[in-house]
Amino acid sequence: MTANEPLIPKHGGYRKLLSFQVAQMVYDVTVRFCDRYIDKRSRTHDQMVQAARSGVQNIAEGSQASGTSNKTELKLTNVARASLEELRLDYEDFLRQGGLPIWDRNDHRRQELIDRRCATADEVAQWVKEVHDRGLHGQSGQKQPPNPATLPELAANAALVLLAVACSLLDRQLAAQAKAFETEGGFTERLYRVRSQNRASRPPSTRSTKSTPSTND
Q1: DSSP state, 11?
Q2: Is the pLDDT reported for residue 114 higher than 60?
Q3: Structure pTM?
Q4: Nearest residue to 129 (alpha-carbon basis) of 20, 36, 21, 27
Q5: Domains of the chain, with CATH numbers?
Q6: Which of 23, 51, 201, 208 could bridge across to 87 with cysteines, CB 3.0–4.6 Å?
C-alpha cells in the first residue's frame, strides 16, 4: 500500500499485453483459416471464429474491469483462456479427422515459427507459404516436392503453435492476477485503505470516530 493509493488504479492498457496481441493474431489467423478450409455453412466455422473472438474480447474486458473489480478481471481472463483451449481442440480435431499430423513438441517448425516473431496474420501466412514452397514437410527436414495438400496441415499447426503461446501467457497472467487478489484484495479492501489514509491525513479535530466503512459501501 502506498501513501497515496488511488481509489481506482490505472487499468485498461490491454493493447500492450502480449497475451492480447497474440490472441488477436490467433483470431485473425482463425478467420482466414475457417474461410479457406471450413464450410461457412457449418457450425464448426462459427464456433471456431467465436471462440477466437471470445479470447480477444475477454482479455480486453478483463483488463478494463480491473479498475474496480479484480475478481471480474480474473474471471474474464479465465474465460479467455477457456475459449482459446476450446479453439485449440477444434484445430486438433480438424487435423485428426483429416488424417493430418499434429506436430509434436520437438518438431523444428514449432520453434521456427516462434523465432519468426510474427506480428500479423499476413506474416504467419507468409511463413506458411515459405515452409510449403521449400518442401520441408517432415520432422527430419528432408526436402520433398511441394504438395498443396499439406497447406491445411501447415496452417492448422501454425495456429496451434500460436495458441500454445497465447495459452501459456494467459496461464502466467492468471497466476499473477490470483496472487494480486490474494495479497491486495479487491475494490472493497482498496476503498477501506483509501478511506483510512484520508482519515489519517486529516487534522485530529476533523477525524470521524468511525474506523471501518459501512457494509453497504
Answers
A1: -
A2: yes
A3: 0.76
A4: 36
A5: 14-132+148-198 (1.20.1440.60)
A6: 51
